[in-house]
Amino acid sequence: MQATAPTAPVNLRDVVLDFRDLTKIYPTPTGDYVVLENLQLQIKKEEFVSIIGHSGCGKTTLLTMIAGLNAISRGEILLNEFPITGPGPDRGVIFQSPSLFPWMTAFDNVMLGVEQVFPHGTRKQREDIVKYYLDKVGLGQSMYRRANQLSQGMQQRVGIARAFALKPKILLLDEPFGMLDSLTRAELQDVLLEVWDKEKITAIQITHDVDEAIFLADRVIMMTSGPRAQIGDILEIGFQRPRMRKEILNHPDYYGYREHLIGFLEH
Ligand SMILES: Nc1ncnc2c1ncn2[C@@H]1O[C@H](COP(=O)(O)OP(=O)(O)OP(=O)(O)O)[C@@H](O)[C@H]1O
């Protein structure tokens, strides 16, 4: 299928990430594997974007290139007009598993990153940042418990607190709730949206869950299946913010959005 990217023109002043002819090729023993080819996309400041697509189409590849952790083969990604060439504190990542130091408290796990990003503040200022975000994700009473004494959902709350506490310009989320049961998943979607609504940083999230994409995103980017994956379609989600789960589920547009996404994935 030849991909098109039917999207409304974006005002260039609002663009924070600009993907220009982005191509990724992995060398393999049987020859080059072209995962993404000539991908074009613009993401706006303060936008929440979800990316969905079949397994193996290149979503994580795309996210790790934005993070600067995976080399770009051809084309470029401009971040505020400058090409991405490596990782930096302007981009924060939340992975499926938050990789905490198990013997350290939730507080110390977040503090570790905050000390690196804000070395010039006072100890008190750094402590206030850590406490503020742990409180926001609902860990006000548990911040001095060791990470290995926390449930998976609580550990991911620490991951969310840590990512926001480092004050990135762009938040990259690689299936952050993929390992959680559906109840915890819904809880953490609410937590994420609550913190994000206050901070309004640009967020790009990979998910396999169409309901999650609709609940969280301003736009859902649908990727075609690889090899040579591109943007197949883009769906604008018009729900007002802040979003309440119950209102969204009862909204007359909800099932139209859902059918659009499922229709694309089943195509
Ligand atoms: N380092 C690598 N070397 C060679 N091929 C790779 C490498 N990393 C990923 N690939 C291949 O590139 C393709 C895209 O992988 P990627 O992990 O980006 O897909 P994805 O859409 O995130 O998949 P999933 O939804 O299953 O997580 C896959 O076919 C994968 O096997």
TrEMBL record:
Record domain ABC transporter: where: 17-250
GO molecular function, one term: ATP binding
Pfam families named in the record: ABC_tran (PF00005)
Location (main, coarse): membrane
GO CC, alphabetical: plasma membrane
Top-level taxon of origin: Bacteria
Subcellular location: Cell membrane
Membrane topology recorded in Swiss-Prot or TrEMBL: Peripheral membrane protein
Keywords carried by this UniProt record: ATP-binding, Cell membrane, Membrane, Nucleotide-binding, Transport
InterPro entries noted in UniProt: AAA+_ATPase, ABC_transporter-like_ATP-bd, ABC_transporter-like_CS, ABC_transporter_ATP-bind, NO3_transporter_ATP-bd-like, P-loop_NTPase
UniProt protein name: Nitrate/nitrite transport system ATP-binding protein
Annotated source species: Neolewinella xylanilytica
